[in-house]
Structure formats: C-alpha cells, structure tokens
C-alpha cells in the first residue's frame, strides 16, 4: 500500500504511511474491528484512527460494515466495524508464491516433467477464448498492440513497439509478471506463454528476455509479416487452467 505525500512533507508522509499500515495490519490480525478497538490496539486516539480509516476506505483497502450481532439485539444503532477488502488483503504477503512452487514441484515429482508442461499449457488455454476475441477484433497490423492492451488489463503492464535497428518486427514488452518468482524455478511457464503468444498472433515469436531470468522486462520479438488467422490453442490437454499468463 502506498500513501505518497508531496516532497516537502516527505517525512510526514512516511510516518502517515507507517501508521496507516499498522491500522490495516491490526484489522488483518484481529478481523473486523471498531475504531475504538483499533485505537486501543495501536495506541492512537479514536479521532486519529478514524482519519486513517477514511483514507483506507477511499483507497479500497478497508470497507465499513454493520457489526454482526449474535443473540438478542440491543437498543441503538449497531456499531460500525471496519474489515479488509480483497484488495486490502492482497496488499499483505500471502505466501502464494511458496504455495504455487510447492504445488508445481509436487506435480513434477509425482507425474514428471510432461505433466508440468501440460499444466503450463492448460493454464494458457484457459485464457484462449478471451484473448483470441481481442486479437481477432484487431486489424492484422495491430494485433501485437491489441495483445499488449489485453495483457495490461490482466496486470502485466505490457507495451508494443517497433523493434530497434534492422529487425523487421515488433517487441512485446511485459514490465510486470505476477508469477515471476515462480517462473524462476519453473521456466515451463514462460515457454508455454511464448507458445500461447505464437498461437494468438499466428506467427512464430521469439522470447528475448524474461523477468524470471533476471532481466528488467519480459521481451518477445514478433516478426513483421502477414499473420494468418489465430491458431487453435496448443493441444487438447490445455482445456483448463488459471487466470493469468505467466
């Protein structure tokens, strides 16, 4: 979670950010809480806590809700409690990378590398319909740009640009990868993604760099040609999968 202040107030902004994170962490650790409960736990006044809660609500990190009452309801309005949103929970470390690595290692150890490759391809295939619709709706010369926009919508911060020098083609660049830490240990995810791009664009593509390999950006070279219609996604085994490309 980032709470950025103006440069002259940098020290204040840092303190505000730290305190706000403590408030959110208190809710994570203890569940939906009233402002009074949070104030007592973090050692602030209720007025100060409410100010931070207002900012957290504005940032979609926290949401206000009516406190559940078990048994007979007393007179008066129910106390308002504050709970983390899904976005707020995602701001904290969830150990998803470790879980994914453990799961993929189990697949490799029990079913072999072929099963791991099949999983990676299936993960891509789950996105084939949505991505293919975007590509088919674009003019042939704009397909790489269309793919970049679709990837960006899924959190990959992707761009498309002309390849430098004498190269006749484009570079598809992904500046972020949600599974980069997992792909460091399982490059099959990156290989399946490259196959996926080739299938979508109807032409052979070449992966030049990956975040998982320690490069600054994932870069895929797309030759400038007359692309054919997007192909059917790789293999019948690739019929189910997760949400995002590698």
Automatic annotation (TrEMBL):
Pfam families associated with the record: HTH_24 (PF13412)
Annotated stretches, region: Disordered: 222-246
Protein name, as recorded: Helix-turn-helix transcriptional regulator
Species this chain originates from: Streptomyces atroolivaceus
